[in-house]
Fold each of these.
Amino acid sequence: MLKVNNLQVYYGAIHAIKDISFQVNEGEIVSLIGANGAGKTTTLHAVSGLLKPTSGEVSFLSSKIDNLSADKIVKKGIAHVPEGRRVFAKLSVQENLELGAFLVKDKNFIKNEYERVLTLFPRLKERLKQMAGTLSGGEQQMLAIGRALMINPKMLLMDEPSMGLAPILVKEIFEIIKECNKQGMTILLVEQNAKMALNISHRAYVLETGKIVMSDDAKNLLGNEEVKKAYLGG
C-alpha cells in the first residue's frame, strides 16, 4: 500500500534520513520505533508531504506521491495525526472535526463520518461546544485522531499518540488505534513507548540516527534481546 524507497532527507547540512526503505501493507499496523532524534517524525513528514525528500521515492497505492503537496496527499487518502496533537485551541470540538473534512464536498459523507467519530469517541460527543484548548491532554489526542478520521482515510499516520498522557489514557488511546485497525484502517505509527507500540503492531522498523537498523514481526522484536535492552527497559 505504502512503499518508501531509498529516502534521503537533509535539514541544511544535517543528514536526517539516510537511504531508508520500508513498506506498509493494507490492513497492517506498522510501527517505527527508536530514540529521540532517530528520524521517526521526519519520515512521517516526508510521507505526508509536510517535508520534501532530498531524494528517493514514496508511493501510495502504486502512485508516486513524493512530488505532491500535503493537501493532495490527503486527497489520496493519507491523514496525519501530528506530534503534540495540534488541535485548533480557540475553536470548538465540533469546529475542529468539521475542519478535518474541509476537502470533502459530499455532505452525506461528512455526516456519516461525523457520527462514526462520535461513536468511537463518546467523550467528544459530550464536549462538542467546548473550546478544544480547554480539553485535557487525552481528550485533545482523541480530537486529533477524530479530526484525521473525518475523511475516512485509507491510511493513518500517527506521531507519538501517547506523548504526555497518563498511563490509563495511554491504554485507552491504544485501544482506539486497535479499533480503527479492526475497522479496516491501515496505520503507520511512530511511538516512543516501544512496548505499547509493538504490542499492537503487526510489524516494526527500528530507526537509529536516520537509518533502519532492524525490522521484523512485532512479536519477534518484543522478544529480541537488543531491542529489549535499548527500548523496552531491559
Amino acid sequence: MTEDRADMRGSLKPMAKTTPRHFRLDIDADGRVGTVRLNRPERKNPLTFESYAELRDFFRGLSHASDIRAVVLTGEGGNFCSGGDVFEIIEPLTRMAMPDLLAFTRMTGDLVKAMRHCPQPIVAAVDGVCAGAGAILAMASDLRLATPEAKTAFLFTRVGLAGADMGACGILPRIIGQGRAAELLYTGRSMSANEGAAWGFWNALHASDRLEAEATALARSLADGPWFAHSMTKTMLNQEWAMGVDELIESEAQAQAICMATGDFRRAFEAFAAKRRPQFEGN
C-alpha cells in the first residue's frame, strides 16, 4: 500500500521551474502560491492565440502539480485584460473558415474548463480594464478581488457576436443572477466595481496599492489550509450545478467521507484538542 501511494505521488511534478513564453509566472518561496501575470501592459494585457493555448496548458498541468496549492491571476500595468487582441486575434478571425473558427472557440472554452477543473483555487486580482475574454477569466476564477477602478464588460455584442462565449451564459447567471447577467450580456455595457461588489461578482474591493497583497494573502490562507479539502469543495461546486437535490447530497456525503479518511482530518482534531494550529499535508 505504501509503495502504491509513493508511485502515485511520483506522478506529480513541481511547477516552480515552469517558464511560460506568453505570460509571467511567479512562485513564492515554498512553491505553494503561483501568481500568473498577463504581461502586455502597453496593450492592456490582451490575449493572443498563443497565450490562450499556453494558459490552457498551464491550468491543465496544475492537476499534476506537486507544489502549487493556490493561484493568483492578475495583470500588469494597472489593467487586468482587455480581451482578445484586436489585430492578433479579431482581424484574423474575420478571414477564417468555419472549421478554424470552431477550433478557436473550442480552444478558448478549453481554457475555462482547465481553470474550473484544476484542483487549486484561483483568486483573480482585477484592476482597471477587464473586458471580453478578460471578464471571462475573472468569471472563471473561484474568488475575485478588484479595485474601485475595475471596469468589467462582457462586450461580445459590441462586435456582432453573441453574449454566449466561453461559458458566460451558464456561469455568469450563477454568480450574479439571471436578470443582471442578461443585461450585461445583451448590452455589453461596463459593470462598475461597486455594482460587481453589490451583486456578488467581486468578493471584496481593495485599493490598487493593496490589491495584489490582499489576493496573495487570500491565496496563501487557502494554500496553508486544508488544501485537499479545498480541492474537493471546488469539485463539488462545479459538479453540483447539474444535479438534483438527492444526487448532490449523496455526492457531498461521499466527498466528505473521503476527506474524513485523510490524515488532515485527524491532525486537525488533534490540534484542536491540544489548542494549537493544525498543519495540513493533503493526505
Amino acid sequence: MNNNNINILSGRAWKFGDNVDTDVIIPGKYLRTTDMSVFASHVMEGIDPEFSKKVRKGDIIVAGKNFGCGSSREQAPLALKYAGITCIVAESFARIFFRNAINVGLPIIEARIDCREGDNIEIDLEKGIVKNNEKTYSATKMPDFLRKILADGGLVEHRKKVNA
C-alpha cells in the first residue's frame, strides 16, 4: 500500500473469531514458495477453503482476540495483504503478528466492534475509530511512526525512503 492517505480505510467485512492462528491464515505446506499469488490463493484456507475466491481487494477482516497467534511467519500478513485485505480489525493481536503486519505494510487496528459479515466498515487509523452501521467504536490509536511505515509500504520501503 504505497498510499499517502493511509489514515482512512473502508471495505466489506469478513468476520472471524478468537485465536485465528498463522497456520490457518496460510497453511505451512505453502511456505516453500516466495510467490505472493500462491499465498493469496490459499489465504485463510484453514478456516474457509473458499475464502480466497470470495475476498476482494479492499475487504477488511474483523476478528476477536489474539489474531495471528501461532508461529512467527511473516507469510501470514503477506498472504492477507496480497489477497486484497486492506486492514484487520481485532480485539487484540499476537505481538509478532502485529509487528509483521506493520513491517509488510498491512494496516491493523485493535478494537472490539459489532458487525456482520458483509457490513461496510470504515477505519480512521489516525483518530483511532472504527465505524459500522452508524455506530462509532473507539480503537487503539495508531502511533504516527507506525502510520508512516504503513504509508511508505512497510518497513523496508520506509527505511529506503529515510536513508535516501
Amino acid sequence: MPYSQFKAMLAITKASLRSITRSPSAMIFSFIFPFIFILVFGFIGDNATGPSFKVYLDPHSDTANVLYQALTSMKNIKLVKYDNAQEQHSELIKGRIAGVVLISKTANDPLHPFAISLKSTTSSNDKWPQLKSLLDNLINQVSNKMYPDRKAYASFNFNPATDIETVREYKTIDFILPGQLGFSLLSAGVFGVAFMFFNLRNTLVLKRFFATPINRSYIILGEGLSRVIFQLVTAVVIILVGRFLFGFTLIHGVQTFIDMMVLSFLALVVFMGFGFIISGIAKSDSTIPPFANLITLPQFLLGGTFFSVDAFPKWLQPVSKAMPLTHLNQAFRKIAFEGQNLWQVKTEILILLLWGVVAYFVAVKVFKWE
C-alpha cells in the first residue's frame, strides 16, 4: 500500500492540535485573556448611563419642585451627605465630589421660576465639565416636558471664573502614574520572584546553598531583598520622572514621596508572596507566565489602573474592590493628591497586609526547595 502524505499530514495536525490544547500558555493567551479584555471594555462601553458623579446638594436648596425630583432620579448623579460643612468642603477640595448644587427659587424672573447653581474646585477638573453638561440637559428636559412652547423652566447660574475654586489642578498623570506604579510593583513581585526561585530550584542552586552554613530563611531573605531594592529604585525613577517631566502632584513634597516609598515597600513584599506561590506550583518555566498573568492581568484591568472602579457595573465593583492592587492604587492617590498620610490610609494598608498573610500561608504550603 503506497505511503499517504495526506494521512501523514492529518496525523501531524491532530498531534499538534492535541499538544496545543494541553498547553496552559496557549489556552490562556488564546482564549482567556481576549475574553477578559472583551468583558472589561465591553462593560465600560455598554454602560449606557455613562460615568457617575458624587454631588453635594446645598442644604438651602428648594426640594419641592420637579428639578429636584429629576435630579434625584438621574442614574449618573449620586447625592451625598456630610455631617458638617467642614467635611463637605474637605471632600470637595480633594476632588472626591464633583461639585455643590443649589436649587433656588427666583424672585424677579417669572419666566424662570427656579435657578440651579454649581460650584466646584480645580481638583475636580475631570468631573465638573461633564456635570455641567448633565445639569444643562436636566434643565432642558424638564423645560420641554413642562413648558414646551416657552423659555426654560430654570436658569443655570454658572461662571467658571468665579464658581470654580482654585485649589490644585487634577491632571491625567495624577490618576495614571499611581496605577502604573502599582502594576509595576505587582508585576515585579509576581513575575520576578516566580522566575527567580523556580530557576534557582531547577538549576539546583538552592540545593547547593544547603551545603553552606547559611540558614534557609536567610537564603530567601537575601534573594528577596535584592528584588526589593531593585524595584524600589524603579519606583523612585517612576515617581521622579512623573513629578519633574509631567507635573505629577506630590502634595507635601518630600514627606509624600517618603510615604509612597514606604507603601511601595509594603506592597512589594505582599506581591512577592504570590510569586512564591507560583514558583512552588509551576512544573516548568513555560507554565509560569500563564499562572502569573492569571494573578496580574485581572488586577491590571479591574484594579483602577486606567480608569476608576466606578466605571464598571455595580455587580462587578465588589470584585474590583476585593483586589489588592485596587487598594494600593487608592492609597497611592490619596497620599499623592489628597495629602493623606500612611495612618489615614490604614484601611487600604490593612487589606494589603491581609492579602499578604493569605499569600504567604499558601506559599509555605506549596514552596519547594528542589
